[in-house]
Write a structure and sequence with these properties.
237 residues, mainly beta, 1 helix, 5% helix
Amino acid sequence: MDDSAQRACVAEAKRMPKAAWTCMAGTLTARVEVPGRAPRTEIKEFGSGVVQLTPPPATKAAAGADILADDYDSWCEDGTVCGRKISDYIAEVKGNGVYGVGGTVIGRVDFIVRQAFNGPFPRWRGLLIWDSGPTIRPNAFWADCRINRSGPDGFCDNVQLDFSPVTSTSWRSWAPSSTGYEQTDTRLSNNTTYHDDLHGSFKADGHSELFAAGTIHTGRWRQCGPNCKYYQVPWVP
């Protein structure tokens, strides 16, 4: 996340001095502890999210055209969120997150997801990268398939991404692996349009708060008969 985005986020976080917060995708997500009441989550826009379309590099890994050379530590290091289309059937998104309590920044983390269709079935691979701060211990991370609607979006199955802790010495964690995918069981329909909601939460050593990773998206897709195809990458709200 660039300095201007971080400053805007911290300025908003100072308004909730006892809240645990995370900034990603131009959104401040704060978990407010209220004595005698259940914690509540507040989501606030703190500025325009930076969405960059970065063309994938020409070099591909030897394993095949659908495996991109690993540039995740250099791609999208200055934006809040970047999306890129690898092919009609594959897209990636990267969110740069900064988190803290009150007006104090604790650390930074990157949340990256690749989505590659298996015919009419979505499937996802995730990566967490520790950038700074204490050890991060992932809680639950999810990839939700959603149906595009003018009102509340519909739900079309999901998968869980199980990450291991990331630290200054073991700073990457893949889910399920650097080559595998988690796939939904629900066959999608040709005449329906879809997107995904990618989100999660984590704890940081030395802090009792639960931090939320703001929702990011690979893009929108349709034509799921026989093969789903992307028609909008990066995501446009």
